[in-house]
Amino acid sequence: MLKRIETSELTLGMFIQKLEGSWFKHPFWKSRFVLDEQWMLEVLQGSAVETVIIDTEQGLDSQPDPDDVPARMPGLAAAPPPAAARSAPLRPVTTPFAAARIATVKEFGTARKIADRHSKVVSRVFLEARLGRGISARNVDPLIDDIYASVQRNLYAFNGLLRCREDSEETYRHALATSALMIALARQMNLSPSETREAGMAGLLMDIGAGQETAGTPSAMAGADDARSQHVLVGHALLKAAGDIPEPVLKVCLRHHERLDGSGFPHQLAGQDIDQLSRMAAICDSYDLLVAGSNGSGGLDPAEAIRHLGDHGQGLDPAIMVYFIEMLGIYPIGAFVELRSGRLAMVVDEDPSERALPTVYTFWSRPQDKRLKGETIELSQCYGADEIVGIAQLGGLDLPPLGALRQTLLSAYAKASGA
After folding, report:
1. What pLDDT is stored for residue 70 in this prediction?
2. pLDDT of residue 226
3. What's the CATH code, domain 104-328?
4. 3-class SS at 79?
5. Distance between CA 387 and CA 383 in Å, rounded?
6. For residue 318, what is the enclosing H or E element?
7. Which residues are CB-neighbours of 87 under 8 A, at least 6 positions away?
8. DSSP string, 117-159
9. Distance between CA atoms of 333 and 164, rounded to whole angstroms?
10. How far is CA 239 from the centre of its chain?
């Protein structure tokens, strides 16, 4: 039986069917779980969630109230009057991510469905913003939850898939990719679930001002000296007008082009004046722009982009950069590498315990100067039979465009793996 109760009535052993209200009100990434830890009870009762729905067939029941009246939902007991606002602070909580890691190749399929299902959502949100219509956190809540859950199941699949796809409009692909990078980086940095969700929303919406015309914007914006600042200022104004976008997300929209050395824009902030999420966004945004390319130019290989940020990323937070590289790996999914055997291959999976020894899928032989029938090699398990000697140089080879090549190789790898 489903039953709505106040959070003050919760006890250990109850099965939470639904946490009512926006997920920004609570620190749990999922809404259905057994309440079996004291810290979970304390956090939930100290949060802004006033009522929950419990399933008495899967967990303990609350004490029956003879004054309850029938609820509007069949089989659901009515809620007592809302309690007074609670003053208990929400203490920082770090909820462990799922211990069981779904294989990357299996999560590719789920990630593809998420990207396909929500690409229209992202497109609509950006279009409505350009038309001056309202934006709401509710519009993107389901998308953030789906990306969050995908990263929870597998750290690499969602962004790896986007790196190997060409069938998305660039602005929306960048929004999805940056959101996934922000969530994965927040996970790597062991941020709380609520901070991780804010990171994901920030990555998705921080460039919502891109493509906006100056006409019709506030005069203060229209007079900005640096044209590059326009999308930042306009985007911040759009999100602030929504009314329900969290303040950390607003800051990221305004500050993701600021740099620690003061060389960024729009306000030339420096050092501690730049918040942590904005520092994270600067790295994620820079990386994705490097690998995607701009103004018709081809992007860098993902592994080359990692090295470029390490060598030339002045103004980026070096401590967060370490987390970023640990998260993506030295050779991220989609990177083309050359093996000691003379074969060229694309990285298709990562080994969390061996960052320099990813799984690769071969496609070319330099000694034979021809395409190969693909072979999957787990470098961490081949005991030195082969190894990466560097980033592959593909110039002059009879190969399709790199985007199409990545897509083809990823599909072939998935097929060979039985996914």
Report:
1. 40
2. 58
3. 1.10.3210.10
4. coil
5. 9
6. helix 318-328
7. none
8. HHHHHHHHHHHHHHTT----HHHHHHHHHHHHHHHHH-SSHHH
9. 8
10. 19
Contact between 16 and 3 under an 8 Å Cβ cutoff? The reply is: no
Mean pLDDT on 73-87: 37
**Residues of 96-125 as b/e, b for ≥16 C-beta within 10 angstroms?**
ebeeeeeebbbbbebbbebbeebbebbeeb
Distance CA 82, CA 354 (A): 52
C-alpha 62, offset from chain centre? 37
Positive or negative, the Cα torsion across 246, 271, 273, 92? Answer: positive
pLDDT per residue as tens digits for the range 42-55? 777 877 788 888 98
**pLDDT tens readout for residues 183-242:** 999 999 999 888 999 999 999 999 888 765 443 444 344 444 456 678 899 889 888 888
Residue with the two structure tokens 């039953």: 3
In 3D space, the residue among 336, 312, 308 whose CA is nearest the CA of residue 401 turns out to be: 336
Rounded mean pLDDT of 117-135?
77
389: which 2 tokens? 């000697």
How many other CB atoms are there within 10 angstroms of residue 91's CB atom? 11
Q: Which two tokens stand for residue 335?
A: 């990177």
**pLDDT over 90 percentage in the chain:** 40
- Phi, psi at 20, each rounded to 5°: -80, 140
Q: 371 by DSSP, 3-state: which?
A: strand
pLDDT at 332: 94
One-letter amino acid of 191: L
* pLDDT at residue 22 greater than cutoff 80: no
Residue boundaries of the structural domains of the chain: 2-77, 104-328, 336-416
Residue 394 token pair: 């593909």
Own/partner long-range contacts of 199-202 (Cβ < 8 Å, ≥24 apart): 199/277, 199/280, 199/281, 200/144, 200/147, 200/148, 201/137, 201/140, 201/144, 201/245, 201/246, 201/249, 202/248, 202/249, 202/252, 202/253, 202/256, 202/277, 202/281
Cα–Cα distance for residue pair 62/56, rounded to 1 Å:
8
Please state whether the predicted TM-score (pTM) of the whole model is above 0.85: no
**Is the omega angle on the peptide bond into residue 266 within 30 degrees of 0, that is, cis?**
yes
